[in-house]
Amino acid sequence: MKNDFKDTELGRLPKEWEVASIESFARVETGSTPLTSNKLYWNGNIPWMSSGEIHQGTIRHVSKFITKLGMDNSNTSLLPKNTVVIAMNGQGKTRGTAGILGIETTCNQSIVGIVIEKKDVMPAYVYYNLQSRYLELRNLSGAGRSGLNLGLIKSIKIPLPHLPEQQRIAEILSTADEAIQKSDAIIAKAGRLKQGMMQKLLTEGIGHKEFKETEIGRVPIEWEVVKIADICDVKGGKRLPLGENFSPEMTKYPYLRLVDFGENGYFNNYGLKYLGKETFEQIKNYTVTTNEVCISIAGTVGLTALIPPELNGANLTENAAKLCNLKNIDKTFLARVLKSQTSVQQINGLTGKATQPKLAIFRIERICVPLPPLPEQQHIAEILSSIDQKIELEQKRKAKLERIKKGLMNDLLTGRKRVQGG
Length: 422
Hints:
Layout: E1 5-8, E2 11-14, E3 18-21, E4 26-30, E5 42-49, E6 58-59, E7 64-66, H1 68-73, E8 84-87, E9 98-101, E10 106-107, E11 111-116, H2 123-131, H3 134-138, H4 150-155, E12 157-160, H5 163-204, E13 211-214, E14 217-220, E15 224-227, H6 228-231, E16 233-236, E17 254-256, E18 273-274, H7 277-282, E19 293-296, E20 304-306, E21 315-316, E22 320-324, H8 331-337, H9 341-350, H10 361-364, E23 368-371, H11 374-412
């Protein structure tokens, strides 16, 4: 294939590619919401989707259904399978998200459907092109108003290779999506296994036959139930001194915030903020070590994290506390216990009900936890950590797949790399 390029309003593209507005090859329409107070309009057998469901990518299921009467009275119609959809509005990062229908469905007024009507334009190709331009779509706005609307979407320009190349591009990106979805399924399955194992191990232990009832429920007869105050000290973190700011560059003094609590049970070591030496000296008594467990106490309450070696000695935010000077309890086991169902219930009951949830240090000390013999604690922690390691490996694999897909999109959808259609 020729590698000659031409300058277009979308940048440099292969010479034989066209640039076409969406309205030149598709019908663009939106939906509406049947009157919610009319029970005759809802719980029928006609799918009805909202903008929050576009994140699926390929939409194969929706959570709500309407009746034929509801569809007729709300002046909405069925969008056919393979319609490309875009969220015009929605919470968080929803606006600008693209999807493609794997089913026939109606939708609300926050979604626009792009029904491809020309045979030489492939819906999946259009979907991937729009998916790659999420930030552009999210920030698109017309004169006199912000946000997306039908007119803006109709005017969006799409680079169009010949149909065989569109098909091959869509096939390659679809294969990447399938690999990512399989990775998601593995992560979800491992997460369910972890939750089940946590519930079993933290209430039944390993190999026990006899049990007793306690204030936190049924546990092995050999176990104790203790308060946090019985097994460690609880100390708070410290906010930046008044008038002080984070260092504009990396220093020897990392400062751990709530956003740094990682999903793998440790603090993240990327995206950190750092203190200058003078600021650190003012709050140097509020540091953490690898022998301690941290728990969030404000905003999102109950997150737990251990300290990786590279963050030993970091400063801790005032929105978290550290459990230190541990006695007869393994740090990893303690971090696991604080995420268990019984601990979460206690934390929720002890958290203040103000607009900004807060868990006072003296209340943390009251939390009751099971205390198996130390070797059993360590064995339980090892089992759960092994599952975490599998999840983390799969998450890294998924991240790599997503980077590969992003690179493919950048190359294939601009013609920098060409593929021969079958």
